[in-house]
Write a structure and sequence with these properties.
Helix content: 55-70%
Distance between the termini: 21 Å
Strand content: 5-15%
Number of domains: 3
Order of helices and strands: HHHHHEEEEEEEHHHHHH
Number of helices: 11
Length: 395
C-alpha cells in the first residue's frame, strides 16, 4: 500500500510542480505587462511588482494546475490498465485516490490563504509600488506625450529638458467649494515627498487664473502639492470588503451593522419629527432620497462583508472539488491522452462551477440570497464527484 501511495504522490508532485511553475510564470508575466502598460511604470518598479502579483497568480493557477496533474496521472494509470490490475489484486481504487484527496485538501487550505494574501497584501503592494513611482510615471508620460492628467489636475508642457518642464500649463480641477484654476509657468519641476505622500510641483515665473476670478502674476518660485495617490492614478488604499484581510472582517461587520442601526434610528427620528410637524412633503425631498440611498449603500457593504469570507473559502476549496471530479473521471474515461481527459473535466467545470460561483457571489453581495449560496458551485462538484466515484468503485 505504501508503494502505491508513494508512487501516486511522486507522479502527482512532478506534474503539478512543473505545470504550476509554467502557468504561474505566464500569469505573472501577463499581470506585470498589464500593470506596466496601464500605469507606464519604469523598469525598476516593474520588477518590484512581481512579489505582489505572485499570490494573485497562484490563487488562480493552483486549482487548474492540480486538476491538470490529477487527470494526467490517473489518465495514464487507467489507460495503461494499472487501475484494472489493482482491482484484480483485490485492492480498492480508493488506495490510489486518497493520497491525491489529502494533497487537494491541504492545497485548498493553502489557496484560501493565498486568496486572503492576494487581496489584502498583494493589491495594496501593487498600489504602493505605483505610488512610489508617481514622479517617474509623470515624467515618462510628459516626455513621450507632452501631457499628463489625473483626477485632480492636468499638465501640458512644451518641452522636457532633463528634469525641467518648459512652457508648463497646469489645470486644476474644481472640488467641492474649491474652484478650478489654470497656472502657466515658464519653468517647472516635479519632486516626490514620499514621507508625506505628496508630489510637489515647483513653478517659476508664471500666472495664476482662478475660474471666474482674478488673474495674478508671480515672478518668483511657487509650489503646489497634491497627494501621490492622485498623481499615480492608482487610487487610495481602499476599505472595500474585497481588499480586507479575513481576520479583520468580523470586527468590520460588527461596526458596519452598528453604523446601519445608528443611521436607521436617526432616519426614524427625523421622519417622526417631520410627521409631527406636518411636513409630509419633506419625506419626498431630494435630501430624504439621498439618505435612503446612503442607507442602501451601507446595507450592500454589510452584505459584501458577510459574503467575502464564504467567497474566499469556497474559491480555495475549488482545489478539492476539482479533484473529486477529475480523478474518478480520468479513471472512468480510460484515455491515455491526458489533454483529452483534462478538457473533458474542465469544460463542464467552466460551464457549471464558475457560473454558479459568479451568480452566488453577485446574489449574496446584493442580499438576494444568504452568503452560503456562494458554495453552490462547490456543492455541485461534490455531487458530481460522488456519482463518478460510485461508478469507479462499482465498475
Amino acid at each position: 500500500m505504501r508503494i502505491l501511495t508513494r508512487y501516486v504522490l511522486i507522479e502527482l508532485s512532478r506534474v503539478f510542480l512543473v505545470s504550476l511553475i509554467a502557468l504561474t510564470g505566464l500569469a505573472i508575466l501577463g499581470g506585470v505587462v498589464r500593470e506596466a502598460m496601464d500605469k507606464s511604470l519604469p523598469p525598476a518598479q516593474v520588477l518590484g511588482l512581481i512579489p505582489y502579483i505572485l499570490p494573485d497568480s497562484l490563487r488562480f493557477a493552483v486549482p487548474v494546475t492540480l486538476l491538470l496533474a490529477t487527470t494526467t496521472v490517473y489518465s495514464r494509470m487507467s489507460g495503461a490498465n494499472e487501475i484494472v490490475a489493482i482491482k484484480a489484486l483485490g485492492i480498492a481504487p480508493t488506495v490510489v485516490l486518497w493520497p491525491t484527496l489529502v494533497v487537494a485538501f491541504l492545497l485548498s487550505l493553502a489557496t484560501v490563504w493565498l486568496n486572503d494574501v492576494a487581496v489584502s497584501w498583494g493589491r495594496n503592494g501593487v498600489q504602493r509600488v505605483v505610488v512610489e513611482a508617481a514622479e517617474e510615471i509623470a515624467y515618462g508620460m510628459l516626455r513621450t506625450q507632452r501631457r499628463y492628467s489625473s483626477s485632480r489636475f492636468a499638465i501640458n508642457v512644451r518641452e522636457v529638458r532633463d528634469r525641467k518642464l518648459l512652457g508648463l500649463m497646469l489645470s486644476l480641477k474644481s472640488r467641492g467649494n474649491t474652484p478650478g484654476a489654470t497656472i502657466t509657468a515658464e519653468e517647472a519641476e516635479l519632486r516626490s515627498d514620499r514621507r508625506n505622500n505628496r508630489l510637489i510641483i515647483k513653478l517659476r515665473n508664471g500666472t495664476v487664473e482662478v475660474d471666474g476670478g482674478p488673474r495674478a502674476h508671480f515672478p518668483d518660485e511657487q509650489q503646489y502639492e497634491v497627494p501621490l495617490w492622485d498623481v499615480s492614478q492608482a487610487g487610495g488604499m481602499t476599505d472595500s470588503p474585497s481588499c480586507l484581510a479575513l481576520r479583520v472582517i468580523p470586527d468590520e461587520t460588527i461596526r458596519q451593522q452598528a453604523e446601519i442601526d445608528r443611521y436607521e434610528q436617526e432616519m426614524a427620528a427625523r421622519a417622526a419629527l417631520q410627521m409631527l410637524c406636518g411636513d409630509f412633503d419633506g419625506l419626498a425631498s431630494p435630501e430624504w432620497r439621498s439618505r435612503q440611498h446612503e442607507l442602501g449603500s451601507q446595507r450592500v457593504r454589510l452584505h459584501r462583508l458577510k459574503t467575502e469570507p464564504h467567497r474566499r473559502w469556497s474559491a480555495g476549496f475549488s482545489c478539492l472539488c476539482f479533484v473529486l471530479v477529475g480523478a474518478p473521471m480520468a479513471i472512468w474515461l480510460r484515455n491515455r491522452d491526458f489533454l483529452t481527459s483534462f478538457f473533458l473535466c474542465f469544460a463542464p467545470i467552466l460551464i457549471v462551477y464558475y457560473p454558479l460561483l459568479a451568480y452566488g457571489i453577485d446574489s449574496a453581495k446584493h442580499g438576494r440570497f444568504p452568503p452560503h449560496v456562494v458554495w453552490a458551485g462547490n456543492l455541485a462538484m461534490v455531487v458530481w464527484g460522488a456519482y463518478l466515484f460510485r461508478k469507479v468503485m462499482r465498475y
